[in-house]
């Protein structure tokens, strides 16, 4: 009888020990779950805060960029105002003319926005507010400046079209060399070296696939600075540049010749080869001469034509004693900084002007001693109809 009681006591003790183990496991499970939930919650809140901050930053950046663009547009209006006042002899506009000419080219951030004559004339807010209805939207532009003297001219020449570059120098300084660079590798692609292209007559698609720099035609046009200019007073010189792709760039040297007659054989045309690089910003380069320095009694223009494929290009004017000569108002740089909240964005934009001379840019050219042998077109009515042709036969 005593033994049975002892066994019962042992069994009760074991039952109590198992109950304690189960309770400890439950407590640890709850604690672990709370910790895990807290980590997930904190991580989620952190992600939300990061995403929210990123969205605010993106919005502020876009607003600041838009404000900077507004400043660029106001800069263009200042340039147009200067162009409009250029030949104005009315004495009442003299103070405004002086203010505009003094602001353009002035590196002071308040040169334009701090000039009351300019801001009143164009309706520009002195604080650079984008909104003119009383609210500011948190957007402003600051430090609007215009630099009319640039060391180079940049543009893009498309196939079939030509670009006219006015070669107007600061203070009318003469020059005797045009440095021409083309095929910007970041825009036009890194060219691929191809051995044996010469003589294979590759297709346009093959040239494009290889990012082959374009064959270029350069024409220097000389126009007298007179009011009674006629076509016979305008002269020009032309040259061609072909390319090959190498590891290192070698500057080509091109002497422009007087315009060639239609009967000139292709083999008689001097076509120097520019060794183009796969690593320079502009793959190809050429120093172009035209038989002496420029004459201050003439205006000069460079017509750039890309053959086979479009290309980006850059033009510099060089004098041996003075180095690079600056352009005067040909492609001014407008600089503006936009602000939104604590975010700033800066933009520099080049603004081009059309040359003040009637030079054809996008037309077909025809030159012939016999005026009846110009450009002519035959028209056929219906597939089996007759043809009335007045065109000459080459």
What does this protein structure show overall?
The chain is an alpha+beta fold. The model has no long low-confidence stretch (mean pLDDT 78). The protein is built from 6 helices and 15 strands. It starts with a helix and ends in a 44-residue tail after the last strand. A hairpin with a 3-residue loop joins strand 12 (311-319) and strand 13 (323-325).
Summed up, the helix count is 6
Label the overall shape. flat
Q: What's the mean pLDDT score?
A: 78
Low-confidence stretches are none
Helix content: 25-40%
Helix/strand-derived category reads: alpha+beta
Number of domains: 2
Topology pattern, helix = H, strand = E: HHHHEEEEHHEEEEEEEEEEE
> What's the total number of strands?
15
Main sheet record: 6 strands, mixed
Distance between the termini: 139 Å
Radius of gyration: 36 Å
- What is the beta-strand fraction? 25-35%
Supply database-style keywords:
394 residues, alpha+beta, 2 domains, 6-stranded mixed beta sheet, 6 helices, 15 strands, flat
Please render the helix and strand layout as text:
Blueprint: H1 2-85, H2 94-103, H3 110-113, H4 116-122, E1 139-150, E2 153-157, E3 162-166, E4 177-184, H5 185-188, H6 204-209, E5 215-224, E6 235-245, E7 252-255, E8 257-258, E9 273-276, E10 282-289, E11 298-307, E12 311-319, E13 323-325, E14 327-340, E15 343-350
């Amino acid at each position: 009888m005593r033994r049975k009681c002892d066994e019962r006591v042992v069994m009760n003790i074991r039952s109590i020990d198992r109950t304690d183990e189960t309770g400890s496991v439950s407590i640890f499970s709850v604690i672990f779950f709370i910790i895990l939930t807290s980590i997930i919650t904190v991580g989620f809140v952190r992600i939300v805060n990061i995403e929210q901050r990123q969205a605010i930053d993106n919005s502020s950046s876009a607003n600041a960029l838009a404000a900077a663009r507004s400043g660029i547009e106001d800069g263009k209006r200042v340039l147009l105002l200067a162009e409009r006042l250029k030949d104005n002899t009315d004495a009442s506009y003299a103070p405004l003319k002086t203010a505009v000419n003094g602001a353009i080219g002035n590196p002071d951030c308040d040169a334009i926005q701090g000039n009351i004559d300019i801001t009143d004339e164009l309706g520009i807010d002195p604080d650079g507010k984008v909104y003119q209805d009383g609210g500011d939207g948190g957007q402003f532009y600051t430090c609007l400046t215009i630099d009319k003297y640039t060391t180079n001219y940049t543009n893009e020449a498309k196939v079939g079209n030509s670009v006219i570059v006015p070669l107007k120098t600061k203070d009318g300084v003469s020059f005797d060399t045009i440095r021409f660079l083309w095929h910007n590798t970041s825009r036009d692609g890194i060219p691929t070296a191809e051995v044996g292209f010469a003589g294979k007559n590759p297709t346009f698609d093959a040239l494009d696939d290889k990012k082959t720099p374009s064959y270029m035609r350069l024409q220097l046009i000389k126009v007298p600075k007179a009011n009674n200019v006629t076509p016979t007073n305008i002269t020009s010189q032309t040259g061609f540049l072909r390319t090959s792709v190498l590891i290192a760039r070698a500057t080509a040297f091109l002497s422009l010749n007087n315009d060639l007659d239609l009967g000139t054989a292709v083999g008689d045309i001097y076509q120097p080869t520019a060794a183009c690089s796969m690593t320079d910003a502009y793959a190809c380069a050429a120093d172009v001469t035209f038989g002496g320095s420029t004459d201050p009694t003439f205006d000069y223009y460079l017509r750039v034509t890309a053959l086979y494929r479009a290309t980006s290009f850059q033009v510099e004017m060089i004098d041996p004693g003075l180095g690079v000569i600056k352009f005067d108002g040909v492609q001014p740089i407008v600089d503006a900084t936009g602000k939104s909240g604590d975010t700033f964005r800066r933009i520099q934009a080049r603004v081009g002007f059309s040359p003040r001379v009637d030079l054809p840019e996008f037309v077909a050219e025809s030159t012939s001693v016999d005026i009846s042998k110009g450009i002519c077109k035959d028209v056929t009515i219906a597939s089996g109809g007759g043809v009335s042709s007045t065109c000459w036969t080459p």
